[in-house]
Amino acid sequence: MINRESLAEQVYMVLRDKITRGEIVSGQKLLEDDICGELGVSKTPVRQALSWLEKDGLVNGAKGYTKEVATLTVKEAIEIYTVRSVLEGLAARLMTQSPKREEVLVSLERIYIEASEAIEKKDIKFVLQKDRELHDLILHASGNKLVQELMQNLRYKVMLIQVDNLYPGDSLRSSIKEHRELLDALNKADGDAAELAMKKHICRIIKDKFGSQISGVDVLLPC
Prior knowledge:
70% of the residues lie in helices and 4% in strands. By secondary structure, the chain is mostly helical. It folds into two domains: 7-69, Winged helix-like DNA-binding domain superfamily/Winged helix DNA-binding domain (Arc Repressor Mutant, subunit A, Orthogonal Bundle); 74-212, Up-down Bundle (Four Helix Bundle (Hemerythrin (Met), subunit A)), CATH 1.20.120.530. It has a three-stranded antiparallel beta sheet with strand order 1-3-2. α4 crosses α7.
């Protein structure tokens, strides 16, 4: 059960979180009656929530009022990550010019240490959480509202890709190493190196996630 105020928004957040955590998987139907029964709400807020999720790209429309969790093709996923590499690369470059760079770096170093410790404990969910925190903090530190807005539009699709294509352990270890290189560039306020480190990091993720599938897809890689 959920509270009665802002019902549509609450239903939206519950469903969004379940999708991005992988509790509701790609291709799974979202039946209004089931959602109403589980959350104790009427169909009106459920339909509104589903329409917002569709705008986010997390849900696809089907017949009537039936929706299902979106399934992204390999090409769509690579295109999303390609745009992500450009936007986050720019964010890293801009952060090197930020007057709050040193202050933000303290938080980034803490996140890096926590993720490094978690990878040794094989706590994959926590590592992914720290990964998102690190990337989000760099975006915020860029100070560029448009870059932040464009990435926000991609945010949930990126999370959907992460859920559908889980990182292998070796890939996460590579991410830790690449984050170290990125933080070193940010510490030196080297915009060129920071942008390149971020782009290389995201490009490597594309190759790790999709591997041999890439050759069969008509799409250009950013690296």
